Amino acid sequence: MTRAPFIVIEGLDRSGKTTQTSLLQARLEREGISTKLMKFPDRTTTIGQMIDSYLKSTSELDDHVIHLLFSANRWEMASTIETLLNEGTTIICDRYAFSGIAFSASKVTTTTTTPSSSSSTDATTVPKLPFEWCRAPDVGLPAPDLVLFLDISPEQARLRGGYGEERYEKEEMQARVRQAFKRLGDETRTSSPTGVAASGKQWLVVDAGRERDEVSAEMWSHVELLVKGTLTSPIGKLWN
Ligand code: Z5A
């Protein structure tokens, strides 16, 4: 039995994920390939509306609670993802579980101390949520066949439109998120046969600081191989 591929686009804020997922969808449709665009958070569901109001700072939630809501927002689409792939619809997904881990694991508590021998203060940051705790709720979700990580420096991202409107859009946070994504990408490339990298599944870094057309051309070069090939392997499970 053959199935369609599951392609995830990840990246920092303003790296151009929305722009590039739309360009990719248009390209796939021009090639006659049936495609479904998904985006997480999916702000249209009841859970998604809670996430939306948290991101816009119109509500406050405990860090554990919002993390679990982001994951629940993906689980509510998990069976739809599997059905679409098995029916032959290619899925392009704007953010997925990797964002879930990278953002939550980058939240820190900062403590400042003033050593008695000095007049300056030392700042220590401690993660609020352990990395592995952040991964746990997403274990078992449908695994992507390809992750394209759109890489952009926080400085470049800040120069793009709309930056700074939502909760996590602060440079220090974005720098930590970038490191967390790097860790996820590195482990995916070197993971054991049970990881996302199994069966030729890939995490590829794309320089998103270039012109739109250059970025989309590189993305297409990676996606074309996958969508024009034949996938017979069953849909994988994340981190199982
Ligand atoms: N989050 C989380 O914490 N946990 C989770 O599990 C998930 C997410 C799934 C909202 O995500 C927040 O949720 C996000 C992560 C967290 N927080 N932060 N920070 P979102 O995906 O809904 O929102 P976003 O990350 O802010 O995405 P965005 O606004 O949609 O940005 P984008 O999609 O990466 O970029 P864009 O909209 O395509 O482009 C941004 C601007 O740059 C726009 O003006 C474009 O015209 C311009 N642009 C795009 N490409 C280029 C190039 N190549 N050159 C120049 N200008 C460009």
UniProtKB/TrEMBL annotation:
Lineage top rank: taxon: Eukaryota
GO MF term list: ATP binding; dTMP kinase activity; nucleoside diphosphate kinase activity
Name of the top EC class for this enzyme: transferase
EC numbers on record: 2.7.4.9
Family: Belongs to the thymidylate kinase family.
GO biological process, one term: dUDP biosynthetic process
Keyword line: ATP-binding, Kinase, Nucleotide biosynthesis, Nucleotide-binding, Transferase
Pfam families reported for this sequence: Thymidylate_kin
Gene3D superfamilies: P-loop containing nucleotide triphosphate hydrolases
Protein name in the entry: Thymidylate kinase
Domain Thymidylate kinase-like positions: 9-187
Keyword 4Fe-4S part of the UniProt annotation: no
Pathway(s) of this molecule: Pyrimidine metabolism; dTTP biosynthesis
Species annotation: Candolleomyces aberdarensis
UniProt keyword Lipid metabolism present: no
Entry's Gene Ontology cellular component terms: cytosol; nucleus
Residues spanning the membrane: none
